Amino acid sequence: MSDLVSMKEDKIRVVLISGLSGAGKTHAADWFEDRGYYCIDNMPPALIRNFIELTYYGGSSITRAAFVVDIRSDEFLRDISGLLQYLRENEMVDLTMLYLEASDDTLVKRYNETRRSHPLTNGPATRDVIERERRILDPFRRQADVIIDTTSLKVAAFNAEMEHMFTSDPETQTKFALNLMSFGYKYGVPEETDVTFDMRFIPNPFYVPSLRKLTGNNKKVRRYVLKQEVTRRFIQQIDSLVGMLAPCYMKEGKYHLNIAFGCTGGQHRSVVMANEMARIFREEGYRVTLRHREMKR
């Protein structure tokens, strides 16, 4: 199986990593380093060009390099456009641009947990600061080859997403990502969702004594939910809706969609539906992450 961006003969494979502060750029760089990339964090854009030319013409053994570029570099805004044009047009470079993002609430929470200052202001990571950073980085985001939303991703899921994007066959996948979640309305609607589907119209397995203590991950509960005619019809409608929306979102520069499935307690119907739609979407070639928020309850 070929890599997402195949390295052509005698080319240096270059990955530019950028995105919002707190979205996972350091972890992405570590991921590439573990796979043999020469990784450099916060190198000014002007020096990246010099590094590549010295590497290519100087007989270096380096064939893969990953650079983290962001607003910590004073030259970022001034030099990034010229660097991107140089890398795109350079025949010695095989370039992939990776952009990482997350919801405002998630980024604020991550900064509060680590008690770090935001690099844009050296102060607290407020929503206003994050929105300002989004605007600054928007030109990079619009040119990115791969965009990953880390809002709902734990470390293992993030690694799986990186594996999928950078070691999968480009002919069998799309850049569009679907982040699916199940939840219980009694515990609140997740803030990071773009689209929420209420599964409480489906007959509830909770009222079947033999199914009550099971979850939607159990095959008996799954069979009960999916055998309902209304469930099967609804699945077809969701599949059709996402198939229509995905290319429209990508045309507007949005490469992911957060979809939540809710039921009363988040244990039965929502879990089955999230699992089933994840299975269908993966078969159709979408990048899919899946989380069951209430499962630990």
From TrEMBL:
Instruction: Report residues binding GTP.
Output: D70, I71, R72, S73
Q: Which residues form the RapZ-like N-terminal domain?
A: 12-168
SUPFAM superfamilies cross-referenced by the UniProt entry = P-loop containing nucleoside triphosphate hydrolases
Q: Name one GO molecular function term.
A: ATP binding
Write down the superkingdom of origin: Bacteria
Q: What keywords does the record list, in alphabetical order?
A: ATP-binding, GTP-binding, Nucleotide-binding
UniProt-annotated binding residues for ATP: G19, L20, S21, G22, A23, G24, K25, T26
Spell out the InterPro entries in the cross-references.
P-loop_NTPase, RapZ-like, RapZ-like_N, RapZ_C
Residues covered by the RapZ C-terminal domain: 177-296
Xref: Gene3D superfamilies: P-loop containing nucleotide triphosphate hydrolases
**NCBIfam families recorded for this chain?**
PRK05416.1 (NF003828)
Protein name as annotated: UPF0042 nucleotide-binding protein
